[in-house]
Please model this.
Amino acid sequence: MSSLKNQNMNLTYNQAYNELSKLVDQIEDDKIQLDTLADKVRQAKELIDYCETKLRSIEKDVESVLTEKKKTTRKSNK
Model:
């Protein structure tokens, strides 16, 4: 099975999270075939990494916006 990394580059956080949720449901299903379990776990790991990276990026963007807002607020109060 091919890597999801290239496919994940175009996903939003919500899309990746939804895909991850589906994979978790499949992994937790008692009827999952052992032959596909490792691939599902690998895919889930890639999506987890992607979501974590996306969250860190969003957090930095929000902090940057808030920092800039504080700077402009201070300047306008002078």
